[in-house]
TrEMBL record:
This is Ring-cleaving dioxygenase. PANTHER family: RING-CLEAVING DIOXYGENASE MHQE-RELATED. It comes from Lysinibacillus louembei. The keyword Oxidoreductase applies. Residues 7-131, 152-269 form the VOC domain. It comes from the Bacteria.
Length: 315
């Protein structure tokens, strides 16, 4: 039986100042900060997670914020665009909200869908698309209510140095279905209601350089630990070099770099983000894995203070 991922689990990017990051994704876009922790490989750096009210797979964008770090370059070997999905009829609200905060944007159409395109403060390319599928996000923050709130990922656009090989990995390894081609882009879909649409730019371009304003990796969903091990074996059987299982506290992860240079992760849906905090208090305080808890005082003295705050209009 062909193995199929349900779709995108999370996307992780590198950004600049953490407060600017929070102000944009929570303050402007209205996402919930569901977890503030540290980069397990570099605990002097935050790892911030934003998503829907429950921190559901398919809604999570995560960031390593490095204040004053060098700017990257978006290009081949990366996720070029992260797309969020909002309820049908909500795009006019988002046009007005972006204008309210003086965020430049443009409207476009791709595969018959209207999209709003803009950049975050650190250079990441973002899109909003309206679709009926996907559960309503019950999180309310300021003027962003469930009727218009971001549900989670609509999908992503992949830039590849070998787009035909990347397309082959998406269909033959990850189990996505090729559904359409338009211009330079081919669209692939999974069977999930959210985080289910991936476009590949089928023409190679400039090679990307990792740094602020670039995506570090894209993660795909595994149902549980048993399914995860099966995915590891499945990826290996298709000739990809895959890592050992890594415990990321909120999910287990394996990694491989597909032929086009994009770092793929496969992450388990459980245990999720409420196992070390309550669902009500998620994201309200710094949570550390056990190996760093003894260094809490030192880390809290090193990390830049942050807060989730409602923003005033820039008008």
């Amino acid at each position: 039986m062909k193995k199929q991922t349900a779709g995108i689990h999370h996307i992780t990017a590198i950004v600049g100042h953490p407060q600017e990051n929070i102000d944009f994704y929570a303050g402007v876009l209205g996402l919930r900060l569901v977890k503030q922790t540290v980069n397990f490989d570099d605990p002097s750096t935050y790892h911030l997670y934003f998503g829907d009210k429950g921190g559901s797979p398919g809604t999570i964008i995560t960031f390593f914020p490095w204040a004053n770090a060098y700017q990257g370059r978006i290009g081949d070997g990366q996720v070029g665009v992260t797309t969020y999905v909002v309820p049908e009829g909500a795009l006019s609200f988002w046009v007005n909200r972006l204008a309210k905060f003086s965020i430049p944007f443009q409207k476009a159409e791709r595969f018959g869908e209207q999209v709003i395109q803009f950049d975050d403060p650190h250079g990441l390319h973002i899109e909003l698309v309206a679709r009926a599928e996907g559960e309503i996000n019950e999180w309310t923050f300021g003027e962003v209510t469930p009727e218009v709130a971001i549900k989670g990922f609509g999908g992503a656009t992949l830039y590849s140095s070998q787009p035909e090989e990347t397309a082959k990995v998406l269909t033959e390894v990850m189990g996505l279905e090729q559904v359409a081609t338009e211009g330079d882009y081919t669209r692939f879909k999974s069977n999930a209601a959210i985080g289910n649409t991936v476009d590949v730019k089928m023409v190679a371009g400039v090679h990307g350089q990792m740094g602020v304003g670039t995506v570090h990796h894209i993660a795909w969903r595994a149902q549980d630990d048993t399914d995860h091990i099966q995915w590891q074996q499945h990826v290996m059987a298709h000739g990809q070099h895959v890592t050992e299982v890594k415990d990321r506290n909120y999910f287990n992860a394996i990694y491989f770099r597909e032929p086009g240079g994009i770092l793929f992760e496969i992450a388990t849906d459980p245990p999720g983000f409420a196992h070390d905090e309550t669902a009500e208090t998620m994201g309200s305080q710094l949570m550390l894995p056990s190996q760093y808890e003894q260094h809490r005082e030192q880390l809290e003295g090193t990390l830049i203070p942050i807060e989730v705050r409602e923003l005033e209009s820039e008008e």
